[in-house]
Amino acid sequence: METLNINGIELAYERRGKGTPLVLLHGYPLDHHIWDSVAPLLEGTFDLILPDLRGFGVSTTVETPYTMDNFASDIAGLLDHLGITKSAIAGHSMGGYIALVFARLYPERVSGLGLVSTQVLADPPDRKEGRYKTAAEVAEKGIAGVVEIMTPKLTPSETLQAPAREIMERQKPAAYIGALKAMAERIDTSTLLASINFPVVIIHGDADSLIPVERAREVKSTLPHAHLLELKGTGHLPMMEAVRETAEALKHLA
Length: 254
Known about the structure:
The protein has ten helices and eight strands. The protein is of the alpha/beta class.
């Protein structure tokens, strides 16, 4: 992987393929390897940029609090470094929150938006409180408890739970803590939808136990021209559970 010094961190990324630039943003608490199966099916269509978000994978982070805006600024800096003025942005879960913020902050730089297992709503008070509680537990006890709870929630596939667990176990506690607090403080991006004038792809499993498929349907109702792919029996990791279908849907962003 290549690394870039940006915003006080070392941001790691992989670049592969040729075509329309497409940034693929992973979710929490994962890294760019969640896209490993999908990427080979996309690299004939897209110039793929696969970063490890700050703190995750090979990327470093800072000890001071940061926000979704900071995550989005990291991606803008990466695209500047690569000389890419406009790109499609697709994000999974927390990566979707970041993609939405990127579209709010840099609309002129977005050629298309992919929302994978994500939502536009902010956390309700109880969920926000829960994230801070989890962050405190990670600071005190490490990540093992979160990994144990998250593994079955990410996917109902026992076959895929093992690789998902391995990815989570590689992540640093600081990444968990920083991301949890940033997600807790994120704002509702529902109002952004009315201003979108580029292609949107929505991908969601109907067996997602972390973010209900209803959240995807609500976005589709606001954006009738968006391409919605509902995946039967799929959980929170469509790019691992339904590889070909996910890849084909993302090609609508080319």
